[in-house]
Amino acid sequence: MKAKKNTLKIILINLLAMLAVLVAVPLIVLAWLDSYTLHGKTVDVPDVCGMQLEDAAETLNRSALDFEVVDYKYVKNAEEDEILEQRPLPASKVKAGRKIAIVMNSGKEPTKVIPDVIDNCSLREAQARLRASGFKLGENIVVAGEKDWVYSVLYNGDTLENGASVPVGSTISIIIGGGDEVVDDEPIIDDSWFE
User: Fold this and answer.
1) In 3D, which of 65, 13, 16 has the Cα closest to residue 42?
2) CB 113 within 8 A of CB 150
3) Shortest CA distance to 190 belongs to which of 157, 146, 163?
4) Which is deepest, 71, 113, 137, 175, by most CB within 10 Å?
């Protein structure tokens, strides 16, 4: 009988020890997670849009935040390296050490290459290829030469060559033959056309 009591006592002690472990381990883990993840501790994201990168870095460091430049865009009226966008947005609540994604102004106007249309195709084909490349077409300039043959392309009064780079969305004019006579050489361009 005494052996049964000792066995029951040992089982009861083991059950109480397991119960204590089952309660203590989750409490310890939760306390550690709260301290590790800084649960409930946040900082406000400052507004760095419009700042230069150096100033923004100082501002974010004072708020215990980090940053990463994720993209560049071109905005004509913004300064080079000016911050255009940020994520998360200003006044958002985030944890200390969070990286703020930044989009900056490249300062360089994007350009496109003139497709191979000069002295290589008809007016209709050139118009289609130039529009497909994103160019706006100005008034055609007609010179003596084979009818509707593209002799040259102009941008801001300058004659361009195939492969020349021009700002995206630029308006260009096409110099085409009017069918008067065949021209073997480059067409003569009169400066009075551009006044």
Assistant:
1) 65
2) no
3) 157
4) 175
